[in-house]
Hints:
Elements (H helix, E strand, L loop, with lengths): L3 H32 L1 H6 L3 H6 L1 H19 L6 H14 L6 H16 L5 H28 L8 E11 L4 E8 L13 E7 L5 E7 L9 E6 L13 H9 L5 E5 L14 E6 L3 H13 L6 E7 L8 H9 L4 E7 L8 E2 L14 E5 L2 H13 L7 E4 L5 H9 L5
Parallel strand pairs: 7-8, 7-11, 8-9, 9-10, 11-12
Antiparallel strand pairs: 1-2, 1-6, 2-5, 3-4, 3-6
Helix pairs in contact: 1-4, 1-6, 1-7, 4-12, 5-7, 6-7, 9-10
Amino acid sequence: MLSEKSTETVRATLPAVGAAIGDIADLFYTKLFAAHPELLRDLFNRGNQNAGLQKQALAGSIAAFATHLVAHPDTRPDVMLERIAHKHASLGVTREQYPVVHRYLFAAIAEILGEAVTPEVAEAWGEVYWLMANSLIALEERLYAGRQVLAGDVWRTWTVAARVEETADCTTFHLVPADGATAPSFKPGQYVSVQVELADGARQIRQYSLSSAPGSPARSITVKRVRGEGPGGGPDGEVSNHLHARIATGDTLRVSAPYGDLVLRDSAAPVLLASAGIGCTPMLSMLEHLADTGHTAPVTVLHADRSPADHALRADHRALAHKLADASVRFWYEAGAEPGDGEGRLDLADVTVAPGTAAYLCGPLPFMRSVRAQLLARGVSAADIHYEVFGPDLWLASAEASGPAPA
């Protein structure tokens, strides 16, 4: 993979580049958006940009990729690359955009590191970039081919067949193809991108897990309204608030083909589904699929939320689990817990975890870290613990850089 000469150069300069990678990423985005404002308007998540999350994810992924190549020059960090490729495919990213990124990224590296960027250093880090970029291009084009679409041509128009107010802040949109065509297949756990035109003309994109099962005639997404938390807490979510306030039954949305690497594996193994907050949405799709396919091994359904009133799709969550031959359900709430529910944070102390369990996690990073640690302590293999992050995957990049990553 990485040449011997470049490996030595990257190894020698990795501490300096790693220390400056945050500043490099910040300057890169400044330069990129100054030259191509349409990318910030119509492709990149402006909320994540304002919060600095995308910068952290980019910096972490580059550092993680370079660290992996130095330690294992003949292999690739495939888990990280697959996750990025699925997100890129859902946005319609194409190979023509990678040279643009290279131009402004290396301009930022040169400006931040100055004279330290000798021709040899530039060549070595250029090799790192193109190894990562070409790997992603190949993965993304394979994903497009799998959907039988031209590279980047992932968008179709869908009609809102119905909307259901699940909680004060969560609404489900049931979607059908506007042209009457058959809805594309997907795997339980995958997501779609939704693009909306906002008041300022920006066409912002967000990803939402499909909460329906693959066999359902419609496709359903459950959207939580993102509310700002006052000064310093960030603004309201642009797209979620637009969907809640402006999209009604009969309206149309631009929706991508389904993508995502957190998918339910077809096997006879016991399954554990642990979620928090709106992280329950991919779990509903998995549960319905397990019920539809007659899964007979034990299924453990766990969820944590603020209160029963905040738990979107709560009745469906329990009802789908009860369709299974061997399922147990436990919910935890910070307030308002009912008889049989747990109080406070999800705790596996009294939960039976069957040998050979495949675990799927979705929710805030602190929640998933806690559950993963508890599962590992209970003897679940790290390879059998899978997770989904809503937004930039800061956990995976840091894990790749420091050691074995979650699957």
